[in-house]
Amino acid sequence: xxxxxxxxxxxVAQPVISGPTAIDAERAFARDAQRIGQWxxxxxxxxRDAVMFTPQVVWARDFLKDRKEPRRTISWSPAASVMSCDxxxxxxxxxxxxxxxxxxxxxxxxxxxxxxGSKGWRWIYDGGEPTAKPxxxxxxxxxxxxxxxxxxxxxxxxxxxxxxxxxxxxxxxDYGRGESADxxxxxxxxxxxxxxxxxxxxxxxxxxxxxxxxxxxxx
Length: 219
Description:
The protein is mainly β. The chain has helices at 22-35, 38-45, 60-64, and strands at 2-4, 46-53, 57-59, 75-76, 80-83, 89-98, 106-117, 120-131, 142-145, 175-179, 185-191, 197-204, 209-217. The chain contains three helices and 13 strands, in the order βααββαββββββββββ. Strands 2, 3, 4, 5, 6, 7, 8 and 9 form an eight-stranded mixed sheet that branches. Helix 1 (22-35) packs antiparallel against helix 2 (38-45). The radius of gyration is 17 Å and the shape is globular.
């Protein structure tokens, strides 16, 4: 189950963000999956500390290493994007599908957290949720950008208990969080022992933080 709560368009002029957006990155990622291979594309766009779920959390770098390409490649497209004011963090969501061997395949929703750095956009969180029917998508992605007014006084999401360093941990923790440098967008995720996964995303409105994404995915 995923709920995405998009804010109404801002009435105050926002600073212009130059360069490719996370939606552009998502589309390029999806195109490359068809062009160079699904797992090759995942490796190409993954951040160093990117995580995936099987259903327990795994380092993407370990899961993807030497993984053979599937016979049938997943396809997907962004339908919604929740982004920070400064344009350096975004959470995309939309439909995905995997063709079947003899006809109808499988369908679902994906959610990707993207970070923009010196090397461009890289994904740091990738999760999917299967659905019984194809997920509809509008003609253009819906975009919600955080307010660039007001002064966030704290973190979008409260800090979790101290975690071991991602750079040295043999396995990722069962909880992760992050936020944009301007503190206008934050996210966290949690995986329970059962494999149940929760993702939350909070965005600055100019006065407070509002929840924009809430996702609970059964194993």
